[in-house]
Amino acid sequence: MKEKTLTIYHLNDLHSNLTQWPAIVSYLKKEQARHAERSTSALYVDIGDHADKVHPLTEGTKGTANTKLLNASPIHHATIGNNEGITFSRADLNKLYDDAAFTIVLANLFTLEGERPAWAVPYDVVELEDGFKIGITGLTAPFYPMYDKLGWQVEDPEVSLAEILPELKAQSDLVVVLSHLGYPKDEKLAASFEGLDLILGAHTHHLFKEAVEVNGTTIGQAGKHGYYIGQMQITYDPKTKALQHKEGWAVSLHQHETDEDTAELMTCIETEAERALNQPLIELAKPLQIDWNQSSPFGRELAEAVRSWCGTDIAMVNAGLLLDHLDAGTVTAGDLHEICPHPVNPCTLTVTGAVLKETLQAACTSRMINLEVQGFGFRGHKLGFMETAGLDYTLKTREDGSYHIKDIKIHDAPLNAKAEYRLATVDMFTFGYLYPGLAQAAAKEYFMPEMLRDVLAAHLQELSSLNG
Predict the structure, then answer these.
(1) What single-letter DSSP state applies at residue 172?
(2) Would you tell me which CATH number, out of the four given (3.40.47.10, 3.30.70.270, 3.30.499.10, 3.60.21.10), belongs to the domain 4-273?
(3) What Cα–Cα distance (Å) separates residue 41 from each residue in 7, 128, 147, 437, 452?
(4) I need a labelling partner for 316 at 20 to 30 A (CA). Which of 28, 62, 157, 228 fits?
């Protein structure tokens, strides 16, 4: 009997780059029609971070716009990324897939009571006409403190996979993992587990124009923002169901034609989002100006907003989080989203005076002020000047244009290098390389689900009422 082929199309990390979505759907629909004409099998999956609140359609509809767009595409299975998992409140995530026409596979997320969410299954098995069975599971990156704060219990992906893999293998001829863990974790899974035929990856935005083989597992990932679609082609014996060959690649969609029905659907959804975003929030008596290169009124208000929200004596926030100024007059939810679109939350951490001084000095260098940051939830242009609240210091400009900080005081008391201070800042500083002293700090507490723009709105509303 002649061998058969199965093609799996995989998308990851769109991050609500919805200008690319009509091209993606056009390509998938054409491939779907081609497979139907040739009577060959195909599956279509999304591997998370499809929804990103940086886009007004996602923000204004609490992500349901993304679900509607997926419904109108060939996608039939998906898992969630950290943008779905930890930038939506538990209530909003529970509603996000109410009307989904596709199946969410997710093995490592539970309620605090240990129950699986009603909108997801740990795995699913798809059977083709010839009886060939594909077992599909999903795993998401375990941001433990964030999920806990939102009322979820996220499990170690390796533990979850070990629990379900025996039954999944017993029911399947091909085992597929939709992994929003990142390529290094995918490599580890492939090395640690036998019988993972395919890992379709996400999270780290790797672009594999040719799939990678690790311990017999074929791994693919298709970059970010929907400019590529990943494809895996599997050849198998239809009688014995034995796999004969696996290969994968990525297809560029940079200049692909668009699907008109999808474009029209997006226009309809825009009306719903605009209603929510046009809601007036604040009446500003005077404009608030922002300057990324030095301290400015709007930057100082942002630092004070974070300090007040978190209930600390001091705060540090980078000015680059504010993308523009605010004019006097009515400020809407859409205005705040436009100038502060980042999925970033406030947080507190315990640091020594020495770490505070070290961080401030590093933050005031030209390199850090002008650093173009990608990732950590930041959706701006450059990091910008570090604004503070509750902290006073003397800033001197050297001959080379760099800054030197001296005479640091906290509420008029000199900074004590050995003393510990509770600092309010933003979560992006706790994730990586930007400020090691903050990333390594103790007793981190994240304030969720409110985003930075929500904190800013509350602060400006209070100011408006005081000035009323």
Answers:
(1) -
(2) 3.60.21.10
(3) 6, 8, 37, 52, 45
(4) 62
